[in-house]
Description:
Largest sheet: 7 strands, antiparallel
Radius of gyration: 16 Å
Helix content: under 10%
Distance between the termini: 31 Å
Order of helices and strands: EEEEEEEEE
Strand content: 35-45%
Number of strands: 9
Amino acid sequence: MRGWKTKATAAEQTSLVTDTCNLGSARDSATWSTDANGIMTTPDYLWIFFPSGYNCYQTYNQQFTVNSYPVLITTGLQNGLTGSHNVIQFTASNGNGACPTIYPSP
């Protein structure tokens, strides 16, 4: 049926890939509802807190499903990258965290 839109459930799974900080994994996997246009109704946050003096990084894989089906992630018009999951890296220098790098990966 063309033009038909419905609400859905988006679910996130995160997995720790690399941890030079030895802080353990962030607990971020969650679910959201979407509006009729497929947009998540609340934002997704992944928070990492680094102790003072830490010089290290953590890398995560992040995947989403919608109504239990895997979906591709894209940056769209920004640079055209598309993949099955995001790779997210958090870096600390003397305990100060920088904004994470996030990019889709095959």
